[in-house]
Amino acid sequence: MTIREKLEQMESEILSPYASLSRDSKGRARAEEPCDIRPVYQRDRDRILHSKSFRRLKDKTQVFLTPEGDHYRTRMTHTLEVSQNARTIAKALRLNEDLVEAIALGHDLGHTPFGHAGERALDRVCPSGFVHSDQSVRTVEILEKNGQGLNLTWEVKDGIRNHQTEGNPSTLEGKIVRLSDKIAYIHHDMDDAIRGNILKDSDVPRHIGDVIGYTLSERLDHFIHDIVTTSTDKNDIVMSEPVAKAMKELRQFMFERVYQNPIAKAEEGKAEQLIETLYEYYMHHFDYLPYEYRNLLDRTESTKEQVVCDYVGAMTDRFAIAKYEEIYIPKTWHG
């Protein structure tokens, strides 16, 4: 019996009857020889962690564009916080931590530069639209490894595709990530807003604070404990009704005070214009795209518009700005 088989046996003995067992995975689009050490979801986690798209997350905006300070979140730190929240919940409920971690680490791989501003821009100009959860799946299926993709399991891709509010993941592990994503961004976006002097802890309305707490740590602790307590011995991942209501109201509060705040969002119009300009430029100069992207037209059923979206959407904030400057800003002449 291999180490992987022993680990799979341990899963069946230790995990909840509602857990997604590695040996019961629906598998990969392309059949592969199993690893002798790692179960399938652990292997997926490793592939995501070593991917180029994961490394790029460190230079992609979470909420605040090009903030002054070293402690504001990026898309990378957001991803790690989602993963940690999700693993804590999964461990407490005896669900599959490897699957949870793989979904969490992969859920935002398709996000654009400049956060949701970049996503809005590409959604406007790309004929087929642009949704970052779908793009994350496209990234792991097609774009990674020069068009080969990562060949992840069905369950991991399902969790990535369905991590947004309107999604409905097929596994409890995917449902954990979906809730953990909301908890993480409400938590850390408020922390960043406090750091940026846009909010104070005391600004949280009393009817919300009385339910889930008045400090960042109180709220995070309360959310996670509530999910674990309410979901124990259930074939579902849920919050209690009062906490779910408070989270929805806190999210609305954040939209009003932070996500639509003119100070926090002052530069987003420029970012959207930059993304749209790069899209139009590469539509007219398609041959300037790297070969790995141009080759997608021959190797896949992708359209020219989709490939340009792939390239621009994969950029980091810094790379997008550098490309814009390279194309449009006159360079100093050295005589």
Quickly list its features.
single chain, 335 residues
Task: Characterise this structure.
The longest helix has 24 residues, at 172-195. 61% of the residues lie in helices and 0% in strands. It is an all-alpha fold and 335 residues long. Helix 5 packs across helix 8 and helix 9 (172-195) packs antiparallel against helix 11 (216-231).
Q: What's the overall average pLDDT, rounded?
A: 93
How many whole angstroms does the radius of gyration measure?
21 Å
Low-confidence stretches: none
* Number of β-strand runs: 0
Please identify the structural class as seen in this structure. Answer: mainly alpha
**Major β-sheet, in short?**
none
Distance between the termini: 72 Å
Query: Please, how many helices?
Result: 17
What is the helix/strand order? HHHHHHHHHHHHHHHHH
Name the overall outline.
Answer: flat
Helix content: 55-70%
Q: How much of the residues is beta strand, in percent?
A: under 5%
